[in-house]
Write a structure and sequence with these properties.
With 535 residues, this protein is α/β, with parallel strands linked by helices. The chain is 47% helix and 12% strand. The chain contains 19 helices and 16 strands. The protein is globular, with a radius of gyration of 22 Å. Bound molecules: acetyl coenzyme *A, ligand LL5AMS7Z and magnesium ion (MG). One of its GO terms (molecular function) is malate synthase activity.
Length: 535
């Protein structure tokens, strides 16, 4: 227990090897100061999120571009800060969790940037959070070499990727650190520990403290992040404007505030990313009770080429380039496979996805696996020529309206029994993996993470609520969904060895997909009940 200055700081999680190097009194005091300064505003913004979702759900509020910020959108005169060192060329970005092996592999993958993920790809066990910070601490100091028991050596090579850390979203708490008895914002813990330990080291090494900001719902949440950056830089005596943040546009509400988000963060902004999976989740969540026009088809049919998804990505590129910001593409879920046919399909699908993005003007894109770095690089190389980005392509031809963003029915397609069963099967497998500490998993040849799993469980809820019918006229009722759940549970159990947490996964799925109300996130109550091992 560290007791310094004004705060009573307790660590309630179990200790681990070298945890004390991250959880130093000074680092904890820094996090406590952040919490003291910003916890209240975070709480208010989360309350407003809930109120707004209710207004949208009941039809009291129609989503639209905000009248009160029209001036910001209309003004051609402002731009974000120029790209910081290491972020000029972002043609390939690899994402992944921060365990030790993945850290070395991601840095050596040949990608320009590594998104070191505490969000969608990380199960936020106390061990994963502190160990992830340790791995980043060591990697930044080039002090991470290790050899496995089988003799494979891991060492950072020449020209590693630029590290961009993604703290957890505003909705999550970290219960293993308590300040004056209360748990902390997980965002402030992840940001604060990383910034405190590494900002100066990164700057000295010609890089900087760079972040991806997940799951923002509006520009006021961006303003909060900007104020956190100002405060943190000031506390450590680091020049204002050193931090760089790329914001994921991955909620339907944020899609209406892209300009405003960049404006709020303009001296710290580095771009926007099209976070497609959470975006689809957000569309389902916000319109889950809006009837058939907002019911999406089977998850596999909601591709990036359906009109409402194209509207969002096209608007993102246009908005970014007008403001001198990088537009970064998202994650195709296809990953390399040992099965040659599945592997060929995966590479072809990823290539098509990256070709669409590069053709649309994105400056780079994400891959989930080192094996996919060359495909993405090849596609962007061929479009970029000698340039590091496509900032010069202003996309003035793009004209996206609120109706285009909300034209969910444009997805077309159908809901099938196989689609319902697939969602249940994937959700059970993913939640089981998450409960066992792995936040990104290969399931049926696809990358699954917290965002893709949210889609799977939300769709089932929405289809039941809307009595959605299959082609033969059968409506999906709760009873039918429970029958499917029973079958899928047995089939997954037969497939997995002992030691899994399928019973807990089933309980979480039942609560978050089959309940009367649609919970905002799977991860919030599941964390409190199952991952939190606070003393
Ligand atoms: C919606 C969103 O937010 S998308 C962003 C969040 N999601 C992610 O970041 C997913 C990242 N990807 C992954 O976690 C993994 O690729 C998975 C889980 C999908 C598949 O992982 P695996 O089954 O281990 O893949 P595979 O066995 O083919 O791995 C081969 C090697 O590549 C490494 N590898 C795979 N993916 C990554 C990655 N993203 N970063 C670094 N190394 C990786 C593995 O560690 C393994 O290394 P090794 O040969 O030294 O043992
Ligand atoms: O974070 C990315 C997403 O697609 O969600
Ligand atoms: Mg996401």
């Amino acid at each position: 227990m560290a007791d310094k200055l004004n705060y009573r700081i307790e660590i309630t999680g179990p200790t681990g090897d070298r945890f004390a190097e991250i959880l130093t009194p000074a680092a904890l005091e820094f996090v406590a100061k952040l919490d003291n300064a910003f916890a209240g505003r975070r709480r208010e913004l989360l309350d407003e999120r809930r109120r707004r979702r209710e207004r949208v759900q009941t039809g009291e509020e129609q989503l639209d571009f905000l009248p009160e910020t029209r001036r910001i959108r209309a003004d051609d005169g402002w731009h974000i800060a120029p790209p910081a060192p290491g972020l000029e060329d972002r043609r390939v970005e690899i994402t992944g969790p921060t365990d030790r092996k993945m850290t070395v592999n991601a840095l050596n993958s040949g990608a320009k940037v590594w998104l070191a993920d505490f969000e969608d790809a990380t199960s936020p066990t106390w061990h994963n959070i502190v160990d992830g910070q340790l791995n980043l601490f060591d990697a930044i100091r080039r002090n991470i070499d290790f050899t496995t028991e089988s003799g494979k050596r891991y060492t950072i090579g020449e020209d590693p990727a630029t590290i961009v850390a993604r703290p957890r979203g505003w909705h999550l708490v970290e219960k293993h650190i308590r300040i004056d008895g209360r748990p902390l914002s997980a965002s402030l813990v992840d940001f604060g520990l990383y910034f405190f330990h590494n900002a100066r080291q990164l700057i000295a090494r010609g890089s900087g403290p760079y972040f991806y900001l997940p799951k923002l719902e509006n520009h006021l949440e961006a303003r909060l992040w900007n104020d956190v950056f100002l405060f943190a830089q000031n506390e450590l005596g680091i020049p204002r404007g050193t931090v760089r943040a790329t914001v994921l546009i991955e909620t339907i509400t944020a899609a209406f505030e892209m300009d405003e988000i960049l404006f709020e963060l303009r001296e710290h902004a580095a771009g926007l990313n099209a976070g497609r999976w959470d975006y689809i989740f957000s569309v389902i969540k916000n319109f889950s009770e809006h009837g058939a026009d907002f019911v999406l088809p089977d998850r596999a049919q909601v591709t990036m080429t359906v009109p409402f998804m194209r509207a969002y990505t096209e608007l993102l590129v246009r908005t970014c380039h007008r403001r001198g910001a990088h537009a970064i593409g998202g994650m195709a879920a296809f990953i390399p496979s040992k099965d040659p046919d599945a592997n060929a399909t995966a590479f072809e699908k990823v290539r098509q996805d990256k070709e669409r993005e590069a053709g649309d003007g994105f400056d780079g894109s994400w891959v989930a696996h080192p094996g996919l770095v060359p495909v993405c690089r090849e596609v962007f190389d061929s479009v970029l020529g000698g340039w590091p980005n496509q900032l010069g392509r202003l996309r003035e031809d793009v004209d996206v309206t609120a109706a285009d963003l909300l034209d969910v029915a444009s997805a077309g397609g159908e809901v099938t029994e196989a689609g319902v069963r697939a969602n249940i099967n994937v959700a059970l497998r993913y939640i089981d993996s998450w409960l066992r500490g792995t936040g990104a998993a290969a399931i049926h040849n696809l990358m699954e993470d917290a965002a893709t799993a949210e889609i799977a469980r939300c769709q089932v809820w929405q289809w039941i609520r809307n009595g959605t019918k299959f082609a033969d006229g059968t409506a999906l009722t709760r009873e039918l969904a429970v029958e499917f759940l029973d079958d899928e549970f047995e089939s997954v159990r037969a497939d997995l060895p002992a030691g899994h947490r399928l019973d807990d996964a089933r309980a979480i799925f039942t609560e978050t997909a089959l309940g009367e109300k649609l919970p905002g996130f799977v991860t919030t109550s599941a964390y409190a009940r199952h991952l939190c091992d606070a003393r």
